[in-house]
Amino acid sequence: MSDAMKKLVGEVLNDIIETAKTGGKKIRVGLMASGSEHGAEEIAKGARLALQNSNNVTPVLIGPKVAGYEDLEYIECAECDIPSRLEEAVKSGEVSGAVAMHFPFPLGVTTIGRVFTPGRGRPMILASTTGTSSTVRGEAMLRNAIYGIATAKALGITNPTVGILNVDTAQPVFRALTHLKEHGYDITFGSSVRADGGSVLRGNDILTGAVDICVTDTLTGNVLVKMFSSFTTGGSYEANGWGYGPSCGEGWKNVVSIVSRASGAPVIANALSFTASVVAGNLPEKVAEELKAARKAGLDEEIEALTPKAAQVEEVKAPPAEPTDDELHGIDVLEIDNAVRVLWKEGIYAESAMGCTGPVIKMPARHMDKARELLKANGYL
User: Fold this and answer.
1) Does some domain include residue 85?
2) From 311, 323, 344, 351, which residue has the greatest number of CB atoms within 10 Å?
3) Which structural domain, as residue segments, surrounds residue 234?
4) Which residue, among 287, 240, 279, has the nearest Cα to 262 in the 3D structure?
């Protein structure tokens, strides 16, 4: 038997043994080994806790080894190279998913979080919590609902109940989802715990976990995750829940979950297991299936109805593409595309993207000073 054949047989036998021991093959999930406000040891504790508590995940720390945790699996690299090495590991298949404290998702990609609700001790999905599925609020919330359903199904919840948090645009989004249901899209609306019921949720409902999926805008979802995660600790340490969840977007193939720099070991451990579960549940495929079904029921028409009719935007072509090695923060998500056009008009190549703290404009570093001046002069900064 050749060495290559022996290696293949060995890998197959290892898989069989692992399946017999755990009930299924473990999913390799990358984890940033640095960047926490609580230190690298807290991250490593989370990885070890995931190994102890979950039978579905093998954490792979990306970065320098953490003293006292050398037994964990690593992809070693310098601390400054962790973000790029994590992205490379996901794209190359070295890991099947990842948990990161920062990831520059493109516009159109958002994360679907999961929290532990204190009223009745049940989990609830928050759609969404970071990134943005669209710069148009109504479309974003409509897409968030679809991505929340896909995430629930990837977790094995076959018929999740959906409610819409009572924030701006909740009623139009509820109408749009109702139209999709009337035209054949498979969605089950949940109900408020309040006496008058309904699928538009109050604060009471998210404390009790009245539905499987709470649909909201991303910034509100982000605040809710922070509050649910750290309400027992005073805010500096996120101790409960599953973090900000895995990434979803139309055509997006990677599963990258987000935790906060304030997330403690219990949340990191849960995020690793959450990520492994949705990888095993084929989340990107579930997203594609839900979008296809929703589009068949009239998704594009509902998006058009939710889009404000504004004055025609001046057509500006992008300059030739250049490598983008710097980011500019501080611009409102609803204005990010117009801000990019201001820079294009002056010959500066730029791209809009979404980081964990909000929208960013990516551009060559040498243009940063001029770009700041232009955007300040035009009222964007």
Assistant:
1) no
2) 351
3) 109-242+278-306
4) 240
